[in-house]
Amino acid sequence: MIDAPPSARVELARLALRAALAHPDVRAGDPGPAGTCVTAGVGDRLVGVSVISDDGDGGYAVTLCLRTRIVPLRPLSEQLRERITRASTASVLAGRPTSIEIRIVDVDVDIDVASPPPAG
Fold this sequence. Notes:
Strand content: 25-35%
Helix content: 25-40%
CATH architecture: 2-Layer Sandwich
Order of helices and strands: HEEEEEHE
Number of helices: 2
CATH topology: Alpha-Beta Plaits
CATH class: Alpha Beta
Structural class: alpha+beta
């Protein structure tokens, strides 16, 4: 049995999710409210990213569904788009994104539970 290489769509999904999760303000991928923000490939289930063919022009529409820290969300979304665009341009295996949508599904609150509030 010969293992087929991953498709350009799945490779783009993997690359986009990896680029997003490498950002310090991104906590995790999320399947989204309807559970549709998932890309499946041979032996892969990438939760938090959906990549679909974009009108047959060879490109792909990328949607990321993410849990993040409490930060300004528009600048975070722009940073993520730039990271994904840069990474996909450098990759010979991944498809080309024609659009990149960033959905912030949930925001995690960082609470330091090790330090009790001051008395008094």
